[in-house]
Amino acid sequence: MHYKQLSQQIFKKSSYLCVGLDSALDKIPSHLLKEKDPIFEFNKQIIDATIDFAVAYKPNIAFYEALGPSGWETLQKTIDYLPKDVFTIADAKRGDIGNTSQMYAKAFFESLNFDSVTVAPYMGSDSVKPFLTFEEKWVILLALTSNEGAQDFQFEELQNGKPLYEKVIEQSQNWGSHENMMYVIGATRNEQFAHIRQLIPKHFLLVPGVGAQGGSLKEISEIGLNKDGGLLVNSSRGIIYASSEKDFAKAAAQEARVLQEEMKVYLDQL
Ligand SMILES: O=c1ccn([C@@H]2O[C@H](COP(=O)(O)O)[C@@H](O)[C@H]2O)c(=O)[nH]1
User: Fold this and answer.
1) Which one of 117, 236, 255 would you pick to mutate in the ligand 1 pocket, going by the greatest count of ligand atoms within 8 A of its CB?
2) CA 101 → CA 53, 62, 123, 167, 244, distances in Å?
3) Average pLDDT, the chain
4) Where are the domains of the chain?
5) Is 188 close to ligand 1, i.e. is its CB under 6 Å away?
6) Ligand 1: distance of its center to the CA of 208 in Å?
7) pTM to 2 decimals?
8) Does residue 114 carry a pLDDT above 90?
9) Residue 251, strand partner residues
10) Which of 188, 104, 118 lies closest to 148, judged by CA?
11) Which of 18, 23, 50, 60 to mutate to test the pocket of ligand 1 (most atoms within 8 A of CB)?
12) What does 158-203 look like in DSSP terms, one character per residue?
């Protein structure tokens, strides 16, 4: 999907919501366990219930890999089920030496046909660039993550006084453009958000950490939105596990609707 198409979808749906499909057998409602493919059945009903409120879906690949070969099949079925006008994110956090990254890129972009994949910057340019050679596909580079452990390395101050995450952002500007690269910035990082937005005014930011991790949609939106939208805000558990009963899809729709309605207010203010 092109930058422009994504931006158009955001304004068409008045939403920059990304629904995280972190679907696990021990978390989905028990009545689904009798289905042939319980996770696919769960995903299908979540997608049907939330599609009017979301522009993107993000299966976290770990939840599918954990199931072995059948998990990959479930993932493929889920991606095939999603309408073509939604943006799909393989949250896989990959990156390796060049020829290996090339294979990861083929797996997610050609075989599974995702629009984008999350990539770790740690191994440097040759580990990221192979992902950037695919037409209309995106790298979403981990810059400043939402978890506590982000303190271990990402805030490390370099000799020039800048934190490591800032170097990741600055240096990676030479690898791709705002039309094929996004950055992961956690919703729990609102203190750093304004400065990051200044560094990369045009790039889309994938923002996880709203909902279960306590990030504020209001603060992130006020700082992060740009004239093209510029944000994809993810919520996984807060939406998909809103209820563990038979009404789970209805409850997910309700959570997604609440977020979308709030997003509409911020988009209307642009
Ligand atoms: O910095 C990061 C990067 C990725 N994630 C992923 O996003 C979702 C968040 O799930 P919630 O249930 O909404 O907390 C999950 O797949 C993480 O692996 C992140 O949280 N932070």
Assistant:
1) 236
2) 33, 18, 11, 22, 38
3) 97
4) 3-268
5) no
6) 5
7) 0.98
8) yes
9) none
10) 188
11) 60
12) -TTS-BHHHHHHHHHTTT--TTTEEEEE-TT-HHHHHHHHHH-SSS
Instruction: Supply the angle between the helices 69-81 and 38-50 in degrees, to the nearest 10.
Output: 20
For the record, the structure tokens of 257 come out as: 């609707």
On the CB side of 39, how many CA atoms lie within 13 Å of its CA? 25
Strand, coil or helix: 228? coil
ipTM, 2 decimals? 0.99
Is 93 catalytic? The answer is: yes
> pLDDT tens for residues 125-154?
999 999 999 999 999 999 999 999 999 999
Residue 88's nearest CA partner among 50, 133, 48, 118 is 118
Of all protein residues, whose CA lies closest to atom 1 belonging to ligand 1? 145
- In the chain, the amino acid numbered 50 is T
Locate the ligand 1 atom nearest the alpha carbon of residue 91 and give its number. Answer: 16
- Distance CA(193)–CA(224), nearest Å, equals 7
pLDDT in tens, 40-57: 999 999 999 999 999 999
Assigned fold of 3-268 = TIM Barrel (3.20.20)
Does the C-beta of 192 come closer than 6 Å to ligand 1? Answer: no
For the record, the structure tokens of 208 come out as 């996880």
What is the arithmetic mean of pLDDT over 184-189? 96
The answer to whether residues 221 and 197 touch, using CB atoms and an 8 Å cutoff, is no
Six-digit token pair at 32?
A: 């689904």
